[in-house]
Specification:
The complex is a heterodimer of chains A (about 240) and B (about 325). Chain A has about 240 residues and is an all-alpha fold. Chain A has one domain (about 1-245). Chain A contains 11 helices and no strands. Chain A has helices at about 1-15, 20-45, 55-85, 90-95, 100-125, 135-165, 170-185, 190, 200, 205-210, 220-245. The longest helix of chain A has about 35 residues, at about 55-85. In chain B, strand 2 and strand 3 form a beta hairpin. The longest helix of chain B has 14 residues, at about 185-195. In chain B, about 40% of the residues are buried. The chains are: A mainly alpha (about 240), B alpha/beta (about 325).
Chain lengths: ~240, ~325
């Protein structure tokens, strides 16, 4: 059942232009950043270099890919629930012998599979340097994993935003709003006491940074898994509440 | 069309052939009471027509029956299974066509129906056969590879019906199924509903009284969220009341002396409501009027019983 719902999401996603536009635009931007990083790095002498090429690429290329994923997830998610609620096609699932939990997981898996190619774009760009530069594959694997986990969490948040409104435009704005909040909340500690770390912990970019530095920590994995499950649970609750409203 | 015995109420004991039993169903949207104490019963092989003006609660009732909305109060049993307690089991017996067919425009007809078969938990080996059968019954045999976005409104409606009957449900719920269909398609749909009723029960809502009369065994009229009328429909042999309009100079008193005429009532504007006996026909009446030297301008069958009841119930008696 989950497979059927996820398969339909992927099929619908692939035959509409949105995912291709996102992939195309993402690749253009990433290629530009990639070129800049390699050019800047090769223009510096060994003494002037702060970090390795792998580190420079991971922080810049994967960091910016996370921003693209942040923009893409709510756009991809708006089709999943919000547009279906508006067009009435959600009635198909609502009247079928399907649990709402299966609907949420199926749609979420579909979204993950659609956004995964976007997460693999930076690594795909770096394949061009294989055999030319001495890159650290473990470091790049950690950065790719971090980027993917962040994108998965963005999808969960986008899906929750999509469940809140039957207006796709509004659902995208809600998703962006939530993601923006979780992006800037880490800056709250710079306003007051530096020892305040709760806001740092809530911010996704703080956790992604460790992956981009090549460190896979359980606390960061836990953060992404916890927040993903939290927003999926909220989406499930929201769909149950729709039947009661 | 005339009415037979009042239909069995929902609170009576569940019989073996009862497909759906709705007891004291109520639904509130904020301060608005959309449904109040609705009791319904549907037997296997029966077609029930839900009639009512806009906002009467028909769609709300059907959405609750299909499990899309939770009732504020009341109980629904499908094949004896409580929809609230065991929704998955109950929904296996359910086919639902909402007001707007729940389609995915980016898919092709075959892809869409295959997806529908999967979410209705049909075994994989039965899916191609079920899809082909549903397409055949709805006249979509040659549309399997067509993109849903490119289908006309009538074909979309057919596809909506195809997804509802795909898994051979015991209960078929159709919300305004003739919406967007041309007269030929409407006639085909009536025949389809009648053939489906041989193996399942059907609940359909419609604004069209004639539609309900043509296809339903029972009519339920809803108004302001309540069931105001629930009775079986039985085909009558012919219309016994006729509306006529005579020239202003005609002597209407002669009407009651004509053959087969039982009574005549002036309803204003040189119009009269004439009741004939069982043997009287429109031909007898028109012949009698002409032979009596009255100027006949119009001769129309009087509204059916269902139409009269409908207008009486919602408080709009059409006398013009």
């Amino acid at each position: 059942m989950i497979g059927a719902i996820a398969g339909r999401e992927i099929r619908s996603g692939l035959v509409t232009p949105l995912i291709w536009v996102l992939l195309g635009a993402g690749q253009v931007v990433l290629a530009w950043i990639y070129l800049k990083v390699v050019e800047d790095f090769s223009g510096l002498s060994a003494d002037e270099r702060v970090g390795s090429l792998t580190q420079e690429l991971a922080l810049n290329l994967f960091g910016f890919a996370a921003v693209i994923a942040l923009l893409a997830a709510p756009l991809l998610a708006m089709r999943s629930l919000s547009a279906e609620l508006r067009e009435g096609s959600f009635d198909l699932l609502g009247s079928a012998p399907v649990r709402l939990g299966e609907v949420v997981i199926g749609k979420f898996l579909g979204l993950i599979l659609l956004i995964t190619p976007l997460c693999l774009l930076p690594a795909a760009n770096l394949l061009m340097l294989s055999g030319i530069a001495d890159l650290d594959p473990g470091h790049l694997a950690a950065a790719t994993l971090g980027l993917w986990l962040a994108a998965v969490m963005f999808c969960a948040i986008g899906l929750y935003g999509s469940s809140l409104s039957s207006q796709p435009g509004a659902s995208v704005l809600i998703g962006f709003g939530l993601l923006l909040l979780l992006s800037i909340v880490g800056r709250a500690d710079s306003i007051g006491d530096m020892s305040l770390s709760l806001f740092d912990w809530l911010s996704w970019n703080e956790h992604l940074l460790w992956f981009l530095l090549g460190a896979v920590r359980m606390s960061d994995l836990g953060y992404f898994v916890l927040f993903t499950l939290f927003f999926l649970a909220l989406t499930h609750r929201r769909l149950i509440n729709r039947r009661l409203q | 069309m005339e009415f037979g015995k009042p239909a069995r109420s929902g609170y009576l004991p569940l019989l073996m052939d009862t497909l759906v039993r709705v007891t004291d169903l109520s639904r509130r949207f904020g301060s608005q009471q959309a449904l109040s104490d609705v009791n319904l019963c549907l037997d296997r092989g029966e077609v029930l027509g839900l009639l009512g003006p806009n906002g009467a609660g028909k769609t709300t009732c059907l959405r609750i029956l299909s499990g899309m909305l939770a009732p504020s109060r009341g109980r629904i049993e499908i094949q004896g299974i409580d929809l609230a307690r065991k929704p998955l089991q109950a929904k296996r017996h359910l086919g639902y066509l909402p007001e707007r067919p729940p389609l995915h425009p980016e898919l092709r007809v075959d892809e869409y129906l295959t997806f529908c078969a999967r979410i209705h938990r049909l075994p994989s080996r039965r899916i191609p056969e079920s899809v082909a059968e549903a397409k055949r019954r709805c006249g979509l045999e040659n549309s399997g590879q067509r993109l849903i976005a490119k289908l006309s409104k009538g074909f979309r409606q057919r596809l909506g019906i195809a997804q509802a009957i795909l898994h051979r449900p015991k209960l078929l719920i159709l919300d305004e199924p003739t919406e967007g269909l041309d007269p030929f398609q409407m006639r085909e749909l009536r025949a389809l509903i009648r053939s489906l009723a041989e193996e399942c029960g059907v609940i359909l809502s419609s604004h069209l009284l004639g539609e309900v009369q043509a296809v339903c065994d029972r009519a339920v009229i809803m108004h302001q969220g309540r069931v105001r009328f629930d009775a079986r429909l039985q085909p009558s042999s012919q219309c016994s009341q006729w509306r006529i309009r005579l020239t202003p100079t005609s002597d209407a008193g002669v009407l009651v002396t004509l053959p087969h005429v039982l009574s005549s009532e002036a309803i204003g504007g040189d119009r009269y409501l004439v009741e004939l006996d069982e043997l009287g026909t429109a031909a007898d009446l028109s012949r009698g009027i002409v032979m009596a030297g009255l100027g006949l301008l119009e001769l129309l069958p009087e509204h059916s019983d269902l139409e009269r009841v409908f207008f009486d119930l919602i408080g709009v008696e059409d006398r013009t």
